[in-house]
């Protein structure tokens, strides 16, 4: 699915930058094998993408898995076709149910059918996550800008974009306006919402409410700050597309207004004064005075702010936040005899994530830090040569998910960025 000459040039660039044949070979193997392993072209011209070891397509994961390929697709029309196919499948899913996070290849009723929410036969899981709707908008924008192809933005995009803006506007006042409810009564507490599926009480902030985090764990305080940062960025993208491609000024104006509301909410509620690190971003807030100081390995995270485009990697508030996140002040930062980094309440204590290590490298302004993290990723596969979900900071042979396509993709993106190949 990727042109061999395009891949060969990228592999050579990675090897030059790292001086490491093992890293270059891991990169080559992942880039050559990741996309064919997860992507299935469908008869309608769209592309269905498995999240890895689960037979469903997550909106977030399917876009995140494409990130390194976006950096190489400019000179590869066949790869562009595959990526556009992924986008168009995502857009069709969004219109079917913008509250759903994961979908079936066909309307077969597979998935979490016992959840108490408004499921359809197309939906594998209906955990509403604000970031799930950010990723298709970002993928569309980047494909449009990178390729210049007219077939990237079509009527599917307009319908999906309108559904996203409407949902995010409704969820600015979740208590009064939201129809969304979700309960999973026979699993972990983080897999369901309190208050009979409504979630914890919140008060409007200007930001848009989210039921679940990018980890698929329930939010504690309702307003996920990194998710809203990502939403702000992609609403800017949507405003550009609505103006320049769709010629739809009402849609552009709605995106602009919503973006301004979210930005004001982040500024007013999403930043706090920390006693050690000064002005930093909170991970979640409720609009009632509570804030959560932490970060999760899954992206979008506070660590990934430069990747999503909300702030530059040398922004003072981001740097202060980054310093906090990569310290014991973050309850999910773990340091062991082999590695140190950010984990997640989604995985066991003292397990850190390859995704978070890759994000730490991509968001760094230091070539030395990127090189160190690439070498750490190389050395913590537990002998598999593959990225995992989480691994034990004292023993990388203890890990979750033997093969995790999203983590492999983030390793590849870090390698490309370190080699100077960026969008």
UniProtKB/TrEMBL annotation:
It comes from the Bacteria. One of its GO terms (biological process) is carbohydrate metabolic process. PANTHER family: MEIOTICALLY UP-REGULATED GENE 157 PROTEIN. This is Metal-independent alpha-mannosidase.
């Amino acid at each position: 699915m990727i042109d061999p000459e395009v891949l060969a040039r990228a592999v050579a660039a990675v090897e030059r930058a790292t001086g490491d044949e093992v890293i270059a070979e891991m990169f080559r193997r992942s880039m050559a094998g990741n996309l064919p392993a997860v992507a299935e072209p469908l008869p309608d011209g769209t592309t269905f993408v498995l999240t890895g070891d689960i037979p469903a397509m997550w909106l977030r994961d399917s876009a995140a898995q494409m990130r390194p390929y976006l950096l190489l697709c400019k000179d590869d029309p066949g790869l562009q076709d595959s990526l556009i196919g992924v986008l168009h499948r995502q857009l069709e899913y969004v219109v079917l149910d913008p509250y759903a996070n994961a979908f079936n290849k066909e309307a077969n009723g597979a998935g979490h059918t016992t959840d108490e929410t408004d499921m359809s036969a197309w939906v594998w899981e209906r955990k509403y996550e604000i970031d799930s709707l950010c990723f298709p908008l970002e993928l569309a924008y980047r494909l449009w800008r990178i390729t210049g192809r007219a077939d990237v933005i079509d009527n599917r995009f307009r319908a999906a974009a309108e559904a996203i803006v409407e949902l995010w506007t409704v969820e600015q006042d979740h208590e009064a306006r939201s129809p969304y409810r979700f309960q999973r009564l026979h699993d972990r507490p983080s897999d369901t919402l309190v208050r009979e599926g409504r979630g914890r009480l919140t008060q409007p902030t200007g930001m848009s409410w989210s039921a679940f985090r990018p980890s698929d764990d329930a939010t504690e305080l309702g307003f996920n700050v990194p998710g809203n940062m990502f939403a702000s960025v992609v609403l800017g993208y949507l405003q550009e597309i609505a103006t320049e491609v769709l010629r739809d000024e009402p849609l552009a104006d709605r995106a602009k207004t919503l973006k301004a509301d979210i930005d004001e909410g982040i500024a007013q509620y999403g930043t706090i004064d920390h006693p050690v690190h000064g002005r930093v971003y909170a991970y979640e807030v409720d609009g009632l005075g509570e804030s959560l100081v932490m970060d999760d390995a899954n992206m979008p995270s506070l660590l990934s702010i430069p990747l999503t485009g909300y702030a530059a990697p040398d922004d003072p508030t981001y740097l202060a936040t980054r310093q906090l996140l990569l310290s014991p002040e973050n309850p999910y930062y773990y340091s062991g005899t082999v590695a140190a980094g950010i984990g997640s309440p989604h995985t066991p204590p003292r397990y850190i994530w390859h995704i978070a290590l890759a994000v730490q490298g991509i968001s760094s302004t230091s070539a030395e830090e990127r090189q160190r993290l690439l070498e750490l990723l190389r050395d913590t596969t537990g002998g598999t040569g593959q990225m995992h979900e989480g691994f034990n900071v004292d023993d990388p042979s203890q890990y979750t998910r033997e093969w995790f396509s999203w983590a492999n993709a983030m390793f590849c993106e870090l390698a490309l960025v370190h080699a100077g190949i960026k969008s």
